Amino acid sequence: LVYCLAGLILLCFALSAKGSVRFYLRTVLFFAASLALYLLVDGNSSLGWLKYLNIIPFLQVGPVYRYFFHLRLFAWPVGMVPAFAGALALALPLLGWTALRLFRVRDPLPSMAGRPKTRTAARRRLHTRLFRHEAYKLLRAQSGLLVVLLFLAVQGYLAVQSVPYGDANERYYRNYMEVLAGPLSDRQRTAIDREQARLDGYDAMLQEAGGRYAAQQISYGEWYAVQRLVEENTRGRPAFERVQARLAYLEALARRTGETPWFVYETGYDALTGHAYEAYAGDMRCAAVLLLGLIALFAPLFSVEYATGMIRLIACYPEGRGATVRAKLRLAAPLYSLLFAAAYLPEWLRVVRQYGLPCLKAGIASVPGLANFPFSVALWQYLALLLAVRYVMFFCALCVLFRLSVLLGHTIKTLLAATALFAAPALLHSLGVRAVDFLSFNAFFSANILLNTGSAAALLLFLIPLLSGGLALRSLRRAAGG
């Protein structure tokens, strides 16, 4: 049944492709994308079903029956074996019907006769505005609207389905820091001393009970009861030690700078700035998703005129190519902004729900992980700077993508070249290949990699993508003749 499913997929590709090269390319891309999902998607995440309801584990068959686990489909737990059987029962007849439909409707000798106009079509107004024409080509003729809707649907699903998780020590630490939040003052010192006295009291209680048990003055049951009582009331000790370390850091910072730092619960900031346990993996995951969406949407935006030869006709008109380029860029700007917001919104919402971003007005040095930033700004200003830098970096990459599409003059070639240049390094970083960061644009897409260096000179490296994007945009306009 699984190989029948694979055969039907290949049959649909063959019936819909307009040449053997496109058939082979679609096949390779389909299995490569399936393998990437199988390797990159976390099985415990909201998109874990993409990892297991996938042609790769289906072809192996063994993983389906080897372990007992459930998939979370829209918050409903579904066993893997029933999900596997249901996927086959749904996909086989659907693909079979699709193959028959493609075979029946495809005409090897298309007729030149047009469809008869209906009354509605006859009354429909014709629009000759260039911007609307470019929007129609990109969103309708080139299936750009489908790409945008699919991208928004996946990112929206991630934003809704993400489940906050935190261990016990983190919850205790968050409680401590929320009570102490604010500018450093005697209030925090008094509260910390009071908590230390409480813990010391339980330590003394445990030591006294241990001595009495050793002297056989109390029974084992009483000794065990005291142990449990002390354990229950001192579980937050590791978190409290982190709070004490933070107090020492803030006092040293106040002596060194002469300013008043803040107690800030920093875990959310660490997660967004690359200082959490996963480092820059989250940055690269969001970057890879955004880059794949941009490449899929905008690869044909400029290349279609060159691939079809329409650029020769456009060039005959005064400023024809220049006006076309300006219309395409006006169309690309809002679509790019929409995809950028959708790419990062789920990750930021997850962090806000799980940890929060308190004390946004506090100075950046109040968070130890950001203390090396060479400029003194507030936390909200730093987060705004981070988003602004990323927005500009990805826009520069988009300009390079446009220039590549003009130089190559073919959508498929543009897809492959842009994926190899931008998306593949981000995916390799997610797979654990960190060395690729030195040979790619990953540091610019993450932004945190360079901002965390603590060197103002390192920030000058951001000029590289700025110059690349500026030159690409300038050469694009010059090549357009306007």
Secondary-structure blueprint:
Elements: H1 2-16, H2 20-40, H3 48-52, H4 55-60, H5 62-66, E1 70-73, E2 76-79, H6 80-105, H7 119-123, H8 130-141, H9 144-161, H10 168-180, E3 182-183, H11 186-214, H12 220-233, H13 237-257, E4 262-263, H14 267-272, H15 281-308, H16 310-314, H17 320-354, H18 379-408, H19 411-430, H20 442-446, H21 448-451, H22 463-480
Antiparallel strand pairs: 1-2, 3-4
Helix pairs in contact: 1-2, 1-6, 8-17, 9-15, 9-17, 10-13, 11-12, 11-13, 15-17, 15-18, 15-19, 17-22, 18-19, 18-22
Report how far the terminal alpha carbons are from each other.
57 Å
How would a textbook summarize the main sheet? 2 strands, antiparallel
Summarize model confidence as the mean pLDDT. 85
From the alpha carbons, calculate the radius of gyration and give it in angstroms. 29 Å
Range of strand content: under 5%
Total helical segments: 22
Uncertain stretches = 109-114
Strand tally is 4
Strand order in space, largest sheet: 1-2
- Order of secondary-structure elements: HHHHHEEHHHHHEHHHEHHHHHHHHH
Q: How much helix is in the residues?
A: over 70%
Molecular structure report:
The protein is mainly α and 482 residues long. 71% of the residues lie in helices and 2% in strands. It has helices at 2-16, 20-40, 48-52, 55-60, 62-66, 80-105, 119-123, 130-141, 144-161, 168-180, 186-214, 220-233, 237-257, 267-272, 281-308, 310-314, 320-354, 379-408, 411-430, 442-446, 448-451, 463-480; strands at 70-73, 76-79, 182-183, 262-263. The strands form 2 sheets. A two-stranded antiparallel ribbon has the order 1-2. Strand 1 (70-73) and strand 2 (76-79) form a beta hairpin. The two termini are 57 Å apart. The model is unreliable at 109-114 (pLDDT under 50).
